[in-house]
Design brief:
Helix content is 42%, strand content 11%. The chain is built from ten helices and six strands, in the order H-H-H-H-E-E-E-E-E-E-H-H-H-H-H-H. It has a four-stranded antiparallel beta sheet with strand order 1-4-5-6, sandwiched between helices. The protein has a two-stranded antiparallel sheet with strand order 2-3. It starts with a helix and ends in a 10-residue tail after the last helix.
Length: 306
């Protein structure tokens, strides 16, 4: 009886995935059309991020705010979707475009998040570190560079006893990252630490095998076995434990609801301006108190309509 119910729930989940795939395929051209229209609107994405949902807003440090004011483009691509009927729609690529600024040289930063399942049944997003080419101040306090260096070292090492990460613990890069992570409070990490997020160490091969095994149980070919879907602890080297939560918030909330967030931001700015003319910006979309305002302003979240 319980096996039948579990199979039905999995089949319902498959239907939801199919709907997500079709919705993405149908809406993608319109989102690209929207991106062109947004280019003509000054400070659109900076305003949207300023109104970001709590999952993102609470991760933005005051020191991040001036850098985020240079954001001019955000894109979400479900890059493993092949067409309306094929591909994994839960994997996403976030692309952030920036105008010239004083913090980093990059005009565009991309980050891929792969949806994976491990052999025990856990599933979620994993990724690889992406380097940011800082000019002077590293907003992550070296955490991102350390994560990138560790990743590069791992790729250069040969597997030990068939375990691709087995030999890394003896390296200075590994020890340095672990020590730095232990010294850094999680709630003090820059949102740019998102680019260093890796998540659980689940290879594409392990995931494919786990999905194949689960599908055989759903189809009734193999005997049903209850999987352990509980989230395991993140590796000691994870510099940004909020990565999956933030990536999902960008892809499923802020990006599709950007117009509503922008409208809410403009309405708030107009209200503040009416109440206090001295609060007007200098014409660049920013004022001298951006960091202080972000610290003091209470969360003002909206949930975009579908």
């Amino acid at each position: 009886m319980y096996e039948t119910l579990a199979r039905i729930e999995e089949q319902l989940a498959d239907i939801e995935l199919a709907n997500l795939r079709r919705t993405y395929t149908a809406s993608r051209p319109k989102f690209l059309e929207r991106a062109i229209a947004i280019e003509a609107i000054p400070d659109f994405w900076a305003t949207v991020v300023d109104e970001a949902p709590a999952e993102i807003d609470q991760r933005i440090q005051p020191r991040d705010v001036p850098a985020l004011k240079s954001l001019i483009g955000v894109d979400v691509e479900r890059f493993e979707v092949l067409d309306a009927e094929h591909g994994e729609p839960r994997s996403v690529k976030l692309t952030f475009a920036f105008k010239a600024n004083q913090w980093f040289h990059d005009e565009k930063i991309e980050k891929r998040f792969f949806w994976r399942m491990n052999k025990h049944g856990w599933s979620g997003l994993v990724s690889e570190p992406v380097k940011i080419h800082w000019k002077e101040r590293d907003l992550t306090d070296s955490l991102l560079d350390m994560a990138v260096n560790l990743w590069q070292t791992e790729k250069e090492l040969k597997p030990v006893n068939g375990q691709p990460w087995g030999s890394i613990e003896a390296t200075d890069e590994f020890k340095d990252v672990v020590a730095k992570v232990q010294r850094t409070p999680q709630d003090a990490i820059s949102i740019f630490g998102l680019f260093g997020f890796r998540g659980h160490l689940v290879s594409a091969e392990e995931s494919a095998e786990a999905l194949k095994r689960k599908q055989r149980m759903v189809d009734g070919i193999d005997e049903w076995e209850e999987l352990d879907e509980e989230t395991p602890p993140l590796p000691d080297t994870e510099i940004y434990p909020h990565g999956e939560e933030v990536a999902i918030a960008f892809s499923e909330d802020l990006y599709p609801g950007a117009t509503q967030y922008f409208t809410a931001g403009k309405e708030r700015d107009a209200k503040v301006s009416d109440e206090d003319p001295a609060s007007e910006t200098d014409g660049t979309g920013t004022n001298d108190n951006d960091e202080e305002e972000h610290e003091q302003r209470p969360n003002k979240k909206i949930k975009p309509s579908a």
